[in-house]
Amino acid sequence: MLENLVLAQIADLINDPVIASDEHGRVVFCNSAYSKIAGWSFEEIKNCNFKLLYDLPEGGRTEIALKIGVLYCKGGEKLTLSATCSPLSHPSVPSLLMGRIVVFHPELIPTDRKSSDDFVSTVSHELRTPLTSIKGFADTLLQSSDRLKEHDRKRFLQIIKDQADHLTRLVEDLLFVSRLDNHTIHLVMRELDLKKQVDKVCEAIASQSGGRVFVYDIDTALPKVIADSDRLEQILRNLISNSIKYSPENGSITIRAMLDPNNFKKVKVSVVDNGVGIPQENQEVIFNRFSRLDNPLTRKTKGTGLGLYITKSLVQAMEGDIWLEKSDLQETAFSFTLKASANMPHNQ
After folding, report:
1. Sign (positive/negative) of CA torsion 52, 53, 57, 59?
2. Of 108, 131, 156, the domain-final residue
3. 3-state class of 250 per DSSP?
4. Phi, psi of 115 (to 5 degrees)
5. Which helix (H) or strand (E) element contains residue 69?
6. Which of 134, 164, 181 is the last residue of a domain?
7. What is the mean pLDDT of the chain?
8. Best-predicted range by mean pLDDT among 13-27, 40-54, 111-125, 163-177?
C-alpha cells in the first residue's frame, strides 16, 4: 500500500502527463499533469478504454519507444505530442504483458518551423517535376505542332498524360495523408477471407507484373481476419506493387500468411521478393514520408515516396504492426499483422 502511494506521489511530481492502462486497455492511473493538460480527472476516466483518451501508433511488442501521438482533451481539443510508450511486464514472467504506461512530452510538440519548411519544400519539388514536364511538352506542341511528325506528337501527348497521371496520384496521396494525420479515415471492420483479398489484388495488377510469378504460401487452416476490405486491398496493392517495381522481371513474389507465432490472436502476412534489397542505412526511414531509395533502379521507377507511410498508417489504424523483416541482395520481406477472427477457419 505504501509502495503504491509513493509511486503515485512520484508520478505527480513529474511535469509530463502520465497515463497507464491494464492488459485490456482500461485506464488504471493518470497523474495530475495529465489531468491539467487534458482536463480529465482520474475519477472521470478510470476504467475507460484508452482509445477514447489518446491515439498512439502501435510499435513492436516489447520496446520502449518515442512516438507521435494525439491526446484527446475534455473540451474536444486534440493535441499532437511526442510520447514515450512502455509496456508493463509481469515481474516474474517478462514476456507476459500486463498493460502499458505512456508519458507525453509537451515540450517536444513536433510543430517546429524547420519540419514544416522541409515538408513544404519536398512537396513543392514533387509537384514541380511533373508540372515542368507537362508545360515543356505542351509548349512544344503549341509552337511546333505543324513541324512535328505524327509519331512525335503522339509520344509528346503520351508523356503529358503519364505526367498528369503521376501528378494526380501525388495529389491523391497527399490528400489521403492529410486525412490520416487528421484521423478522418472511416474504417468498416469486418471478417474477411484473406486468400480472396490476395487473389483479387494479384488479379488486378497481373498485367503490370512484367512476367513475375505470384506464389501463394497461405495456411489453409487460417482464420478470417478483421479488417476494412478497401484498406486491406490498398495495403496489399502497395506492398505487392513495390515488389514488382523493385524486383527483376521473371522473378517471383511470394505472399505468405499464417497465425502470428508471437500472438495467436493475429494473422501475420508477408510479401517477399528477390529484388534489389534495401541498404542498412535506409531501413530506419523507409516508412517515413517521401522516403525513396537512391539507386539506379529506384531512380527509373516512378513513385511519390508516400506508399509505405500510407501502408503503415493503415495497418496501425486496424490495430496491426508492420515492419521490414528482412532485406539483402537475395530477398526482401515486408510483414504486417491483422486481428484474427475468433470464429472457425473459413475452410471448415
Report:
1. negative
2. 108
3. coil
4. -60, -45
5. strand 65-72
6. 181
7. 81
8. 40-54
